[in-house]
Amino acid sequence: MAPPNGNDRDTPGPTRRSLLAGVAALGALGAAGCSRVATASTEDGGDLLDRLRAAGVVRLGIAGEIPFGYIDKNGELTGEAPELAKVIFKRLGVDRVQPVPTEFGSLIPGLKSQQFDVVAAGMYVNPERCEQVIFADPDYQMLDSFIVRKGNPKGLHDYKDVVEKKARFATGTGYAEIQYAVEAGYKESDILIVQDQVAGLNAVEAGRVDVFAGTALTTREVVKKSAKAESTKAFAPLVEGKPHVDGGAFAFRPGETKLRDAFNVELAKLKKSGELLRILKPFGFTENEMTDLTAKELCGG
């Protein structure tokens, strides 16, 4: 989710994300999952789907970010993208998924260098990324929201408010929200960059900043137990003067259109039946995050 550069650690284009939980478990599982996969043939849409069916396992690149893809306290792979992957790949004849943990900014390089088969990290689709990988259609859409002090004393509801009221502003490492704030007129050098939404909440609660910007889902989840902070109503940031809605999706190597297309067929069935929402709901997703956006739209094609 598409915005200019920013929201994805070291890869072109934005997407919020950082390592939140299960770091130790990620490392342990990463050692088992980081051997490279064989280079696929790109003729006639690639042969990766056939090879995955033969192997019975698909390697998922994840970034350890709640709720998108992470290792839980029991050492189990979970998150909206891995749980969706389990369902779709089983329908495609691939029974098992194997996590390959990495940092968010290493997902596209890792995919391109054959370290895993697919990116399953809720990655936002944007034109810059579309030049490097191919995306399935988005499985969710996302608006932005702020973490502010209880009662929102400064009345901050969008990036324009942040600029006009000279609010002290923070967001996460590599987040798309950096560019959204800059586009609204906020000086990039004045932005406090923190690790993630938990650090953002702490900064707001401690009074170090007036506002932290993130996705509507992550902000509303992280403030649930806070006595000092709240999340604002979700809103669409402006990109080139127009309201913009981000969409997160699975990413594949450019030649593997056969796998991508088969994935899209099953994803469309889940959307139509309502099962997609049932899969994503435990991770905080609501009907508002369901979408008919296409990768083509978000890629700018």
From TrEMBL:
Gene3D superfamilies: Periplasmic binding protein-like II. SMART domains: PBPb (SM00062). Pfam families: SBP_bac_3 (PF00497). The keyword Signal applies. PROSITE patterns: TAT. Residues 57-287 form the Solute-binding protein family 3/N-terminal domain. It comes from the Bacteria. Keywords: Signal. Signal peptide: none annotated. NCBIfam families: ectoine_ehuB. This is Ectoine/hydroxyectoine ABC transporter substrate-binding protein EhuB. It comes from Streptomyces coerulescens.
